[in-house]
Every structure is written in structure tokens, then in C-alpha cells.
Amino acid sequence: MRRLIAGLVMALCLAPALGRADELVDPEAVLVDELIVEARLPGPAWWKVTDGDSTVYVLGAPNALPKGLAWDQTILKRRLEGANRLILPAAATAGFGDIGGLLALRKQARRDVQPLPAPLQARVDAAAARLGKKSDRYLEWKPVAGALMLLSDNRKATRVDPAEPHQAVVKAAKKARVKAGRAATYEAVLLGRAIMAAPDSASLTCLEVALDEVEAGPAVFRATAQAWAVGNVRGALDGRRSYDLCINALPGMGDQLNRANADQAAAIAEALKTPGHSVAVMSLRSLVSQNGVLDRLRRQGLTVSTPE
Fold it and tell me: Rounded distance, CA 122 to CA 126, Å?
């Protein structure tokens, strides 16, 4: 059960991956080119949103980093000094009251599971062996749920840390005595039901793109993470994506992404009502995509500056 919940939360955080983008609808396919430049200051790229005497410095971040990847936090720590608040990305959460719904979701994910086509079965067997697991770990679930666990296991095996860089940002904020809070939170059970409602074709596609990531290995993920760490925005966005595309293509997930971007933009706009400055950390692609966070803020008449 913990594996399934962890997979759902990871998926709902829209983590980037490797795979075939031409088969899936992608709500974040179009990027705003004028927002994509290379940072001049040390470390990852920042954007600045201003309104009168108030500023929010926005760090664009991946949703996970290879363990041990070093990045320069000098600018982060400087901008946290005297900040009013730290705004964290919107996220799905599961509490004690969600247990009943999650148990029902677990049953649904294991109900009427059909055998996979032989070629796909062979790929699952090979991926499981590569990860040191038994195939039944993924095959006893609907393909979309098996895919979530496969991705989670692969990221553990390739030493990807889903807590970073956000954990480092929160730690720095705590040291600077800056209060941190999420832009919005959503119920994991409701989002999980949408994932479980995926038609068979989409469910199988989710499994295929998760297999693509296992088979590709960690090299591209590490390369894009290293590009992010030195402020190379284009390079950080260059990795072929699959898993976030898969989740966004499931019933209601495109709408959920739009809702998250709207809520994150609203949280930044709200912070601008307080004189001084605040800090925000958001998904890099959600920041610079068309109808993403920064695009929405520009349309509201706020001034958005590209990375320094």
C-alpha cells in the first residue's frame, strides 16, 4: 500500500522522465521562449516577479535530483535573508482520514487485471530483473499502478532523490527563519481515482513509458540535472519526457495541472501584496510553459524578469 501511495504522489508531482512524447497529449508542450535564457549568476536560474514595492524571487526547480548532486546555494541563501515567506509548489497529500479511500483504491488497482501482450510482458520481466525485483510486483496491478511502482523502484535503484532540491530549499529557509508553506494542497484520493479511471490504452501507455525510462538508464536525467544546477534552462528542459506526459494524458489530469498552475500563480500574486520580498520554488517546466505560472502572472499585468 505504501508503494502505491508513494507512486501516486510522485506521479501527481509531475516528475520529468524519458520516453516517447509523440503519442501523448502534452499540456506543457509549448514553452515561452523569451522566458528561457541562461542564468548569469552562480547556481540555478531565478525569475523575478514585481509589483510596486514588492518582489517575489522564483526558483525554477526539477522535482528530483540525483543523490549527491551539488548545486550553488549562494543566491538562494541571499534571497532568503529578510524574506516574508517561502512558497512551495502545490502538491497532493494523503492524511489519516484518507485511509478508507486509499484501501478502496488499492482494491480497484488489483481488480480484473488482464495478462499483458507477450512483448510487453517480456519488457516487464527484463526491467524487474534489472531492478532486482520479481515481475509479479508490477503485474498484479492495473498497468498504470504497476507503472508508478516501476518508476519509483527505478529511481531508488538509480539513486534519484525525490526530496531534492526542495528539501535543501526548506532547510535553508528554516535556517533563515523564513516561514514556508505550499501554494495549494490537493487530496491524493481524488487524484488517484482519476488515475485508476484511465482507459486500457492509456494505462498500457503509462507502463510502456515507465519501461522506456528503466531501459534508458540514468544518463539523460543526470545531464539535465547538471544543466539545471549551472543555470542552463534550455539544457535542463532538453531531456525527453514521458512520465509526466503519461499522467497529464489521464482523465482529468490536464485540468489538474492547469488548476495547480493557477493556484501557484495566485500564491505569488498574493505574496506581492506585502511590501518587501518573498521567495518561491516551482517546477521549472510549469514556470516557463504557455499558460504556466509566469505566463499567467504576465497576463495579470505583473512584471516578470528573466533569470539574472
Answer: 6
How far, in Å, CA of 101 to CA of 9, rounded? Answer: 15
Of the candidates 166, 171, 180, the residue with the CA atom closest to the CA atom of residue 83? 180
Positive/negative CA dihedral, 111, 112, 115, 116: negative
* Cis peptide upstream of residue 165 (ω within 30 degrees of 0): yes
pTM across the whole model: 0.84
Which residues contact residue 241 at a Cβ distance below 8 angstroms, ignoring those fewer than 6 apart? 16, 17, 18, 19, 21, 26
**Stretch 21-45: mean pLDDT:** 82
The set of long-range contacts for 121-126, using a CB threshold of 8 Å and a minimum separation of 24, is: 123/208, 123/211, 123/215, 124/150, 124/207, 124/211, 126/215
Residue 106 in this model has a pLDDT that exceeds 80: no
Element (H, E) at 96: none
**Which of the 8 DSSP states describes residue 37?**
-
| Residue 51 cell numbers, joined | 509589483
Considering only CA atoms, which of 163, 191, 175, 180 is closest in space to residue 267?
Answer: 180
Query: Tens digit of pLDDT for each residue in 223-251?
Result: 999 999 999 999 999 866 666 777 776 77
**Using an 8 Å Cβ cutoff, are 153 and 214 in contact?**
no
Q: DSSP labels for 124-176?
A: HHHHHHHTT--THHHHTS-HHHHHHHHHHHHHHHTTEETTTTHHHHHHHHHHT
Cβ within 8 Å of residue 299, ≥6 positions away: none
List, in sequence order, every residue forming a beta bridge with 60; answer none if it has no partner.
282
CB contact set of 133 (below 8 Å; sequence gap of 6+): 153
Name the grid cell of 284.
Answer: 521549472
Joined grid coordinates for residue 273: 501584496
More confident position, 251 or 269: 269
